[in-house]
Write a structure and sequence with these properties.
Layout lengths: L1 E3 L1 H12 L7 E10 L4 E10 H10 L4 H16 L7 H17 L2
Parallel strand pairs: 1-3
Antiparallel strand pairs: 2-3
């Protein structure tokens, strides 16, 4: 996981998604199994601290709560969830909210 600026995440967003603007979070799936440790590496999560701060202020919540939500969101993406259409979005955001409610 990495915390970066809006400038850095905008570069990544442009490079990987062809979107020319900053975003709050990017997830990069890289499922790898490490035989020695018997662990599965799901991928990387990159969070923009700048955007997280703006969203926390807008939502009138603590920055740590916003980052927690973004981390869960990114992890759900790495686990295969998406929000490209309405049914997927409902399912993913319900799961995200359920996780957040149980971990406050």
């Amino acid at each position: 996981m990495a915390f970066v600026s809006d400038r850095e995440i905008a570069k990544l967003n442009h490079w990987y998604r062809k979107k020319n603007y900053p975003t709050d979070i990017l997830s990069f799936s890289q499922p790898v199994i490490h035989e020695k440790q018997k662990m599965k590496f799901l991928g990387d999560i990159v969070i923009s601290c700048d955007t997280a701060q703006k969203q926390a202020l807008k939502g009138k919540q603590k920055l740590e709560d916003e980052i927690r939500m973004l981390l869960i969101h990114g992890l759900l993406h790495l686990l295969g969830h998406d929000h490209k259409n309405e049914p997927q979005a409902r399912k993913m955001f319900k799961l995200q909210n359920d996780i957040l409610l149980h971990h406050k």
